[in-house]
Specification:
This protein is an alpha+beta fold and 128 residues long. The chain is built from two helices and five strands. The chain has a five-stranded antiparallel sheet with strand order 2-3-1-4-5.
């Protein structure tokens, strides 16, 4: 096996959570509650990366008959974050990761969560 194919830390498990929400408040609340849950379980705090926002602009005619120039404009902004945490690869850590990922979906309504875990063979989806 080539040197580059060997895992650098085979005793750790890396989990990534990709978060999306339409309102920044709910996203910040979710990250805060997740950090609290980590603190309760005695795990190190996860790292957080701010991803670019997605802005969708819509223009709608107010009156299709007389006032053709009278329009309303709307914007829908999607805020995104990437949360990464590493756990030691043992039975207790895998149980903790399972407990975290099973309860993390219901922390705050309005936040979409997608999780991936990085094994030594690559990245596989865990929760959709």
């Amino acid at each position: 096996m080539p040197n580059w194919a060997e895992p650098s830390h085979p005793e750790t498990l890396r989990v990534q959570l990709r978060l999306k929400a339409f309102h920044k408040f709910y996203l910040n609340r979710y990250v805060f509650l997740l950090a609290e849950r980590f603190r309760e379980l005695g795990l190190p705090a996860p790292s957080q990366v701010f991803l670019p926002r997605k802005i969708q602009l819509y223009t709608v005619l107010r009156s299709p008959h007389v006032d053709k120039k009278h329009r309303d404009q709307f914007a829908r902004i999607t805020h995104k974050r990437l949360i990464t945490f590493t756990l030691p690869r043992d039975s207790r850590a895998i149980e903790l990761a399972y407990r975290l990922l099973s309860t993390v979906v219901t922390l705050v309504p309005g936040v979409e969560v997608r999780a991936k875990y990085a094994s030594t063979m690559g990245v596989r989806p865990m929760v959709k």
